[in-house]
Amino acid sequence: MLPLPRFQWIEKLIRRLQVSAVVLLLLGLLLGGGAAILDRLFPPDLARYQDLARVVVDRQGMPLRYYLSKDESFRLPVLSSNVDSGYLAMLVAYEDKRFYEHPGVDLLALLRASGQMLGSGRVVSGASTLTMQAARLLEPRPRTLANKLIEMARALQLERHYNKEEILSIYLTLAPFGGNVEGVEAGAQVLLGRPPRNLTPTEAALLVALPQSPTRLRPDRHPLAARAARDKVLTRVAESLTLEAGHLTRLLAEGLPRGRSDQPFIAPLLAERMQRSQPDKNRIETTLDGALQQGLEQLVRRGASDLGPAVSISVLVVENATREVRAYIGSADFRSEENQGQVDMISAVRSPGSTLKPLIYGLAFERGLAHPASRVNDAPRPFGAYVPKNFQDRYYGEVDLTDALRKSLNVPAVLLLERLGPVNFVERLRRDKIGMHFPDDSQPALPVALGGVGMQLEDLVRLYAAMADDGMVRPLVYGPEDLQNFMEQQPDGPLLKSEARAQIHQILLGVDRPVFAASGKAKSVAYKTGTSYGFRDAWALGFNETFTVGVWIGRPDGTPNPDHYGYKTAAPLMFEVFDALPENREGRTKTKLVTVSLENPNLPPGLQYIDRPLADRGERSRPGPRILFPLPGAEIPLDMVELAGRGIPLEAEGGSRPYRWIINGRPFQTEAVQGFSTTPRLIPDGPGFTEITLVDASGRKNTTYVRFVREAASVLRRSAPAL
Q1: Catalytic entry in 95, 182, 297, 319
Q2: Which of 100, 122, 413, 477 is the most exposed place for a label (fewest CB within 10 A)?
C-alpha cells in the first residue's frame, strides 16, 4: 500500500471525526441524552425558508410584479392551509404515508429500504420522510452517508421545534420545480398559471412528481418523462385515494400543461418604487386597480406608437375622496430602450406649461384681487424686461377672466401672478409640500405662470385633486402605510376655499372638448392643458366628481416634440382614460362639486377691469395711487406699535377711490373701529419684513416694504405721523 501523501491522513481523520460527530448527534437526539445541549449548539437553520421572493399586489391581492429572493430564487411562501387538500393527500400518500405518525425518521421505512437494498444489491425504495426532505432543502448537501445521517438528525430536531403543518409548509415552500423555481406556490404559478388552491388530480400528481427530478421532468422540455412520472404518482396513490379504475383511466389520458406561464409584469415602475420603499416586506400591497392598470397600459402603448420615435407617456389616476392611486403608468413601455421606458416620468421634474394657471386664478379670486367676470385687455405688454406672448401670437383684446382662462391666455395669467406676487404664490404651494424647482436657486418670477418652474406630474395631480375635493393638498395614497399617514396628517388649511374652487370648476368645465378626442362616455370633466417651451412637454389634467387624471406626453431626454401640444395630444388621451374608468358601482364617495355663477354685474369698481388701458377710461392724466405711510424701507419698532395698541396707520393719496390694501398677498380688512378714525391700521404679526400693496378702484397699485423690529433702540428712519 502506497503511503498517504503529506497531510492527506489529517484530512481523512477530520472526515471520520465529522461522521462520528454526526452519529453522536443523531444518537443523542434519538435517545434524548444531551439533546437540549446539541439543539442549542446546532439550531435549525431557516435562512433559506425565510429568504423569499417578494410580490407587489393590487388592492384585491392580484400580483403585479415579483422580485426574486436574495439567492435569486423564485420562492414564494406557502401555508399548507392554502394548498389544495387533494394535492396534500396525494403528496403524503406518495412520499410519506406515515408522515403524521413518525417522529421525523420512519424506522419501518428505513428497515424496509435497507432489506431491499441488501437483497437486490441496489436501491429499490427510499426511506426519506417529508421531514427529512425539508431538512435537506433547508441545508442542501451532497448525497453521502454522513449527510444522510445529518438529515435524520435535523429531521428529529425539526419535529422537536415545529408541528407537522409547519414542517409541511417548509417542504411546500422549498420543494424544487426546475431552474430557480422553488415551492409549490411558485411551481403552480409557472406551470399552471395560477395558485395551487384548486387543482385537478392530474395537476396535483404533476406537482407531486416534479420535485423528484425537476430538471429531467420539466414538462416543457421533457413531456414524455414528465407524463410518465405523473402517471406513476396517479397509479401508486389510486388505491389509497380510492380512485376507481375508470376514473384512473380517464386521468391517465389527460395531457400536460403547455409550456410555462409568464409571470405578471404590471405597473413595473410603481412596483419598483414600492419595493424600494419597503425593503423588509415580502408582500407589498398597493391601492392600484390591476384590471384598470392593464387596460390603460395597453391604451398608452397604442397611443405612443402614433407619436413618433422616443416619445413616452405617463398617466396617473387618483380617486378624489381618498387620494388613492388607482392607475400608475410611469412610461409607455418599460422594456423600450428607445423610449427610455425605465425612466419614471410621473416623478420626473418637467416644466408644467400652463397647468398652474387655474391655481393662480383661484388664489386671485379668493383674495379679492379679481373675479371671473373681471375684464382684462389681452394684448402684448411688457412686465419690466419680461414680455409674455400668447400661443401662436394670437391676442383677443378685451375679455373677461373666465374666457381668458378657458383660452389659456398668457398675458392675463402673468398679470394676476404679478398681483399675487410670484414669491408668495410659490411659497403658498411649498407650504403644502409641492415641489417647485428653480435653476441655480434662483428666485420665483413671473414666468412661473407659463411654466417657468420644474414640477412633477405627481404634485400637479395632488393640486388638481385638491381642487376637485375639499381644497386640501394631501399626499397621494399608494398603499396601507400611506393611508395611515393620510388619516393622521392634516394640512393647515385649504389651498382654495369653496367659492374659489367652485369658480375654477365652472370655468374649467366650460373648456371645449378637443376636436381630436373621440366622443366617449366621459362627461362633466373639468380640465386644463399645458405645453412647455419648445413643445417639450404636453400636459392634460382634469377631474370629475370621482377621479382626477393627469397625463404627460413628451421625450424623457427633454428634446422637442414639434406639433404636439397639450390640447392636441395630451387632452384626447386624457378623455380616453376617463372613458375607461369604472362607473361609480362600488359605492365610491363622490366629490360635491359646488356650482356658482361666474357673472356678477355689481362688481366693485376695482374688480370691473384688471389693468385695462387707462386711455379707455379717460384716466391717463390722473396720477396713480401712492402710499404715504409707512414709507419704503422704514424700520418700525414693535414696542411703539404695542404701546399705541391700535397698530400703524395706512395712509395714501392719488388714484381712484375706494382703495384696497393687500398685506403679504392677502386682502386687509379696513372696517372702521368705533371711537377711532376710519384710517385703516395695521397690527403686524411679529418682527420681519411686510409687503404692503395699495390698489385703487382703477386697478392701479403701489407697493412698499417695511420691517418691524424688536430692538427698543430702533427709531424710524424717516419722519412719520404720530401713532
Answers
A1: 95
A2: 122
pLDDT by residue (tens digit) across 81-104? 889 999 999 999 999 898 999 988
> Could you tell me how far CA 129 lies from the centroid of its own chain?
46
- Identify the band that residue 618 occupies on the pLDDT scale cut at 50, 70 and 90: very low
Domain 73-252 has CATH 1.10.1040.10: no
Contact 283, 348 (CB under 8 A): no
Query: What does the pLDDT read at residue 315?
Result: 98
Q: Is 354 a catalytic residue?
A: yes
**pLDDT(113) > 60:** no
What is the model's pLDDT at position 107? 76
What gap in Å lies between CA 186 and CA 557, rounded to an integer? 39
Nearest C-alpha neighbor of 686 from the set 611, 636, 723: 636
Annotated active-site residue in 354, 374, 408, 698:
354
Q: How far apart are the first and last CA of the chain?
A: 119
Q: Output DSSP code: residue 665.
A: T
- Give the C-alpha separation, 48 to 492, whole Å: 48
Closest by Cα among 692, 540, 577, 568 to 630: 692
197 grid coordinates: 388552491
Residues ≥6 apart with Cβ < 8 Å to 723: 640, 641, 643, 644, 646, 648, 649
* One-character DSSP codes across 136-153: HHHS---S-HHHHHHHHH
Q: What is the separation of C-alpha 442 from the centre of its chain, rounded to a whole number of angstroms?
A: 30
Q: What is the strand order of the sheet 63-67 is part of?
A: 63-67, 54-57, 283-285
The one-letter amino acid code at 443 reads Q
Q: Catalytic residue at 597?
A: no
Give the least confident one: 56-65, 152-161, 181-190, 647-656.
647-656
Domain ranges of the chain: 1-42, 73-252, 622-709
Helices (H) and strands (E) in the chain, counts: 24, 22
DSSP category for residue 569: I
pLDDT tens digits, one per residue of 550-585 = 999 999 999 998 889 999 999 999 999 999 998 765
